[in-house]
């Protein structure tokens, strides 16, 4: 098949109905003249934080050589000036002054060499043409936008720890315990929009190590009230716990105030300071405690604690109490459950507070008095943009005709299953409790079973009295599941079990992952996991939440939309597809997991999945053609018809990869159709979906806000802050539960189905109401949500069937889910 090159779709024109505030700030004045771009090389090579320090010294010392220009620099290779420098290329020697950045000493040289070489002139007229839809996104435009990002961040990055487009401040930091704290951060980025440039400002948060005495951190890691509680040697377990937490931490010594040095921790000694020996100056062995007493007249308060071993330094031992933790060190490890809960509380703010904090950040950013912005002739408004928006009508959701209330119109709220029955309900087969009968007696399980069965029957599922098994959660999981499967089959007179409900002792991930791996890829039976805490006092609402998940895993359908609200799907046989890719859990350079989910019925209430393991260094789904072919066949086997239309939603694609993904994956979709039948060409619409962005909406009027203070579900924005001319929009499809809701961004890359903005926005919004796992509208269209769940499921099996190195080398592996499950939503 001849390779095609595709063009991204332009936006149809639509109308306005209401207004909302958004966290964009207009660039009211752009640089009128050319911006000059220079390449910067600093030798020897050091971390970018040190590059920034060196560059600041260089700028301060060479004002005359730079012709009075104050350049901006990204810390790596790019420098920009508002006019050309007096030279094309020149090298400078720079002496690094005091280093405050959290970088361990690496015997840095006293003199660094900075080479500056002109790269290009950036014509701002190209950017203006692009903003006004009179030109394409050229390399000149990209460099102009990149320059603006660096101009607005150059000054602030010299004052605060910076990570890409975000900077963080310790003001208002919250302790997360164990020597970790959450810092408030602010994101800022230049965005091209319709006719103007805007600065997108948002809130961020990340974790840092608490600075100060290392002994205090050790105290907090061990959960003690104060360092006075450190009265004896650490146990092996405690030593490992502390060592794991502080490994690679940068510290300074405090025993000699005149010469404070920075070091990186390699590990802890296995012996205490009193017992850790090394060769003294006279060749005799001496312990660390005695050495510090003799050399520095320092009597150690905690000689029973281990010493810090310095990285890449032989026989460098420091007692913990003479070490201080350097400020501004990010904590990169995974947070525990309590810390995760605490940081969620720290970041969870209602929309009014969120908006006010963004406005307050302007005092820190201080665009008006920023000397670099003034030099480049840039001005930024201090007012949040007010943009046009529409509020889409809520669709009607339909349940089984035998329901007392078979139609629901949520009006932006959640709803329940009271007086409603699901469609094509199926049967539960067995209960498997991974707790012994003393902890969770059969009587307790039977009480839960009765409540669950009653709820299932109320919602239209045909449930009976299933057998109960008790097994060891750290024993033979595969054997346990097979035993439950056989017991259920025997009770049903040889009929294969359809679903096993597993009761788990805790929220541990290993047991859950093993259950899913074995049931999906070894036995071929759907499983539903519940926590044992929910079985002791079963609540009707909890059971009602579990039943819909069980129903679709058994091939049933929960709800669907009336034909008028999915007219595009009802007119002709149409398949909805959602694609997503996820990285692996444990490998930095491991494989990624690609998932494709496709509807298998006309009402788009049931889906099937196809999953692959592939190289981890690509966003493109490598084996998409075969995956699409699988789902097209499943659709035909279920409906007896070939789809005439394909609406393809694609998640996890960065903007820089839009064209690569479009050209590769659209070709793969068309190739899959051709491989099924020559001349088979369903019309395709390819839409990228993103929810990792920094756009927020804030209602202006109370009537346009929900109970949480967020904009109403169905709020859509496709003007002012969107692309200058391409077909894109932001859709807030879900009601806020807590905090500030994030709308989902949709961009149409290719369209053969003739969508206008209203039709695609309405269809996407309506689909968000028939997500099978819950009775509320969700933030993502279901095919993408299902692909996200399927890719997550593939990661759970990953350690059993993938070799990260072979996968990284280009091997694509189909995940061997059993045939019995491939046509049902086992991944829910």
From TrEMBL:
SUPFAM superfamilies the UniProt entry points to: PAZ domain (SSF101690), Ribonuclease H-like (SSF53098)
Ranges of residues in domain PAZ: 213-327
Stretch forming the signal peptide: none
Residue stretches spanning the membrane: none
A Pfam family recorded for this sequence: Piwi
GO molecular function, a single term: RNA binding
Superkingdom per UniProt: Eukaryota
Gene3D superfamilies recorded: 3.40.50.2300, paz domain, Ribonuclease H-like superfamily/Ribonuclease H
UniProt-listed PROSITE patterns: PAZ, PIWI
Piwi domain residues: 499-795
PANTHER family: EUKARYOTIC TRANSLATION INITIATION FACTOR 2C
Protein name: Piwi-domain-containing protein
């Amino acid at each position: 098949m001849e390779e095609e090159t595709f063009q991204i779709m332009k936006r149809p024109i639509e109308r306005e109905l209401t207004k909302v505030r958004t966290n964009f700030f207009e660039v009211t004045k752009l640089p009128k003249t050319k911006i000059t771009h220079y390449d910067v090389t600093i030798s020897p090579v050091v971390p970018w934080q040190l590059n920034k320090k060196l560059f600041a010294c260089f700028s301060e010392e060479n004002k005359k050589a730079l012709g009075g220009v104050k350049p901006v620099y990204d810390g790596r290779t790019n420098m920009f000036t508002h006019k050309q420098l007096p030279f094309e290329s020149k090298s400078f020697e720079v002496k690094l002054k005091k280093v405050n950045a959290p970088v361990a000493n690496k015997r840095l040289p006293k003199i660094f060499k900075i080479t500056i070489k002109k790269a290009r002139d950036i014509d701002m007229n190209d950017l203006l043409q692009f903003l006004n839809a009179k030109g394409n996104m050229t390399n000149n435009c990209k460099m102009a936008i990149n320059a603006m990002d660096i101009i607005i961040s150059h000054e602030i990055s010299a004052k605060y720890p910076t990570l890409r487009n975000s900077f963080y401040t310790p003001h208002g930091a919250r302790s997360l315990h164990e020597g970790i704290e959450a810092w408030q951060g602010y994101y800022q980025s230049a965005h091209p929009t319709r006719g103007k440039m805007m600065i997108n400002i948002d809130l961020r948060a990340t974790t840092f190590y608490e600075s100060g005495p290392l002994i205090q951190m050790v105290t907090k890691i061990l959960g003690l009230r104060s360092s006075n509680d450190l009265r004896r040697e650490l146990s092996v377990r405690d030593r490992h716990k502390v060592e794991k937490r502080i490994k690679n931490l940068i510290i300074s010594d405090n025993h000699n105030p005149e010469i404070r040095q920075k070091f990186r921790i390699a590990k802890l000694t296995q012996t205490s300071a009193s017992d850790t020996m090394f060769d003294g100056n006279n060749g005799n062995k001496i312990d660390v405690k005695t050495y510090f007493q003799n050399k520095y007249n320092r009597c150690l308060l905690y000689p029973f604690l281990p010493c810090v071993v310095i990285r890449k330094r032989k026989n460098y031992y420091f007692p913990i109490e003479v070490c201080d933790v350097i400020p501004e060190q990010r904590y990169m490890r995974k947070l525990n459950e309590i810390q995760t809960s605490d940081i969620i509380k720290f970041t969870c703010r209602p929309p009014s507070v969120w908006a006010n904090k963004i406005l307050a950040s302007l005092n820190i950013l201080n665009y008006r008095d920023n000397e670099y912005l003034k030099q480049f002739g840039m001005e930024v408004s201090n007012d949040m943009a007010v943009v046009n928006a529409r509020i889409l009508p809520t669709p009607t959701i339909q349940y089984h005709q035998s329901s007392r209330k078979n139609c629901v119109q949520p009006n932006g709220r959640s709803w329940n299953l009271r007086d409603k029955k699901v469609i094509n309900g199926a049967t539960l087969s067995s209960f498997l409790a991974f707790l012994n009968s003393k902890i969770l007696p059969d009587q307790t399980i039977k009480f839960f079973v009765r409540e669950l069965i009653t709820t299932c029957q109320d919602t239209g599922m045909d449930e009976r009295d299933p057998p109960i098994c008790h097994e060891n959660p750290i024993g033979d999981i595969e054997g346990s599941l097979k035993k439950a499967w056989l017991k259920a089959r025997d009770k049903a007179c040889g009929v294969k079990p359809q679903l096993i409900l597993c009761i788990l002792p805790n929220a541990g991930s290993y047991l859950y992952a093993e259950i899913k791996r074995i049931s999906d890829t070894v036995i071929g039976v759907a499983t539903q996991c519940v926590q044992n805490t929910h079985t002791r006092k079963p609540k009707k609402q909890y059971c009602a939440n579990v039943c819909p998940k069980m129903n679709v895993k058994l091939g049933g359908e929960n709800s669907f939309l009336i034909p008028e609200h999915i007219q595009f799907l009802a007119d002709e046989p149409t398949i909805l597809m959602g694609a997503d890719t996820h990285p692996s859990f444990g490998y930095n350079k491991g494989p990624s997991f690609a998932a494709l989910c496709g509807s298998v019925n006309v009402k788009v209430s049931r889906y099937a999945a196809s999953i692959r393991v592939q190289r981890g260094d690509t966003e493109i789904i490598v084996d998409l053609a075969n995956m699409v072919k699988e789902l097209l066949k499943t659709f035909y086997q279920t409906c007896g018809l070939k789809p005439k239309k394909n609406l393809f939603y694609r998640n996890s694609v960065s903007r820089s990869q839009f064209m690569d993904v479009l050209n590769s994956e659209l070709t793969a979709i068309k190739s899959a159709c051709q491989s099924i039948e020559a001349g088979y060409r369903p019309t395709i619409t390819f839409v990228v979906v993103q929810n990792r962005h920094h756009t927020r909406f804030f209602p202006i009027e109370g009537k346009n806000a929900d109970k949480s203070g967020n904009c109403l579900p169905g709020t859509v924005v496709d003007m002012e802050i969107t692309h200058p001319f391409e077909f894109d929009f932001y859709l807030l499809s879900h009601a806020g539960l807590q905090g500030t809701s994030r709308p989902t961004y949709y961009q149409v890359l290719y369209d053969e189905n003739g969508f206008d903005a209203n039709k695609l926005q309405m269809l996407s919004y309506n689909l968000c109401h028939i997500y099978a796992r819950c009775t509320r509208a969700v933030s993502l269209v279901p095919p993408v949500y299902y692909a996200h769940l399927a890719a997550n499921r593939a990661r759970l099996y990953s350690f059993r069937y993938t070799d990260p190195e072979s996968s990284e080398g280009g091997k694509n592996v189909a995940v061997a889910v059993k045939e019995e499950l491939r046509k049902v939503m086992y991944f829910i």
